[in-house]
Design brief:
heterodimer, A: mainly beta, seven-stranded mixed β-sheet, B: 107 residues, mainly beta, six-stranded mixed β-sheet
């Protein structure tokens, strides 16, 4: 398996623009997570899905952020409109209960909003 | 006060040394995770513990549920172990992360 695949690897956008981050989880994994990592706050869980259903989105910072998982092999995290304080590395991870390692992380998307 | 705290924040060791990184948590958790983040940014899940001890190669993780404390040990450290080590406490998939320990192993 190619692992968790995120795209793009890097994104630079202007303030106010819409940004869409994409994630393809490992086939067969039934949970998907979106995390954000910044120097100030470290890693934070934004939202996670079980069997394509959003379970906990309490970490989503505000209404500008939305996430979808239309099927078991694809998820998006959208920021609209983007702001400079959204600049961070966004990680997607997937898991399957009982598997090892439990969580597999993607390589991340480094977002810079100027 | 962070609910998951790690110490030390930074650690420099000589190749071959035995290394210990500590993690204390104040929240109720069902499992404690150790992650490794390489200089390139990739994150690898090392261990998930709910009790006792686990070993994988030169890495050993222990947890004391009563004291809400976990340790990650690296035996015979090597420069390729240089990374940020992050502990995270979790309940039903909702992980709370520590701020990480930056380890540099010098040859």
């Amino acid at each position: 398996d190619a692992g968790v695949i995120q795209s793009p690897r890097h994104e630079v956008t202007e303030m106010g623009q819409e940004v869409t981050l994409r994630c393809k989880p490992i086939s067969g994994h039934n949970s998907l997570f979106w995390y954000r990592q910044t120097m100030m706050r470290g890693l934070e869980l934004l939202i996670y899905f079980n069997n394509n259903v959003p379970i906990d989105d309490s970490g989503m910072p505000e209404d500008r952020f939305s996430a979808k998982m239309p099927n078991a092999s694809f998820s998006t995290l959208k920021i609209q409109p983007s702001e400079p304080r959204d600049s961070a590395v966004y990680f997607c991870a997937s898991s399957l209960a009982g598997s090892y390692p439990l969580y597999t992380f993607g390589s991340g998307t480094r977002l810079t909003v100027v | 006060k962070n609910e998951v705290e790690q110490s030390p924040q930074n650690l420099t060791a000589q190749e071959g040394e035995f290394i210990t990184i500590n993690c204390s948590y104040s929240v109720g958790i069902s499992a404690l995770h150790w992650l490794q983040q390489h200089p390139g940014g990739g994150i690898v899940s090392l261990f998930m513990l709910s009790s006792g001890k686990k070993k994988h190669g030169r890495l050993i993780a222990t947890i004391n549920i009563q004291e809400k404390h976990s340790s990650l040990h690296i035996t015979a450290s090597h420069p390729r172990d240089s990374a940020v080590y992050i502990c995270a406490g979790g309940a039903t998939n909702k992980l709370i992360f520590g701020t990480g320990t930056l380890l540099a192993v010098q040859p």
